[in-house]
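User: My advisor asked me to double-check a structure prediction for DAGKc domain-containing protein before group meeting. I don't want to rely on an old file, so could you generate it fresh from this sequence?
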Amino acid sequence: MTQRALLLVNRHSRRGEETLSNAISQLQALGFQLFEESTAQPQQLSDLICDYRDRVDLVIIGGGDGTLNACVEGLVSTQLPLGILPLGTANDLARTLKIPQSIPKACQVIAAGHTQRIDLGRVNDKHFFNVASLGLSVEITNKLDKQAKRVWGVLAYAATALKVVWKARPFWAEIRTQKESIRVKTVQIAVGNGRYYGGGMAVARDAAINDQRLDLYSLEYQHWWQIILLLPAIWRGRQAEWLGVRTLEGKEFEILTRKPQPINADGEIVTYTPAKFRLIPKAITVFVPEFPLLGEVKINS
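Assistant: Sure, here is a fresh prediction for DAGKc domain-containing protein from the sequence you gave:
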């Protein structure tokens, strides 16, 4: 049976324009009837999804994590299943779900029809897939050059991080859980729902996008060189093993700061402190490979 799919592609993503025609041909050959829409305003993407709620069977999004984040409210509202074509720079959600970077293979994942429910995080009134954070990561996002990102991919994240880290200044924050309130002096607080963020860094060694928990870490360092030494551990999700890194698990957190601090979710500034973080279990349906790798992503039927 022919499936009707809303296709939303970020033509400005790293591989968007050059792979769009190829993706359309692949999907049509696999039997999809496509309704292609595009907009120069990312905030309109969720509205487009809602407009098509009764006209299509699924939504296919081509772009990176920022494009997916712009669509998440529409996906939650309509409950249409999501197919992902990883056309962005980092593609951390696709990495978490083991979706191939090859567009023909990603199309085949969608056509195969294997779906799973995944969790979402929520910070204030905005959902997120991967990680929401404040502090150092916001500075990296603000300083990241779009042209360098397009040309160098994830290497642009690493280069920008090295430029920003040595200027990092700690700030005071209060982390509230359901059991305690903790006052910290930190350079970054990150709250993760998925496994990967920032071009392949892991929020925790055993994090998964359907483990029905949030993973928080706080980098409580005073000197920039301490953060540089920590970066390889953060990349592998082993920061919990280092002194000066506080880690917490839970379904809800609240973070307060002296002055409002911007919060980066899936690579986009979406809100400010004070911020309430909450887990939304099994929030949406996504198309995934039939056999995800065990031990790296835990997905249950």
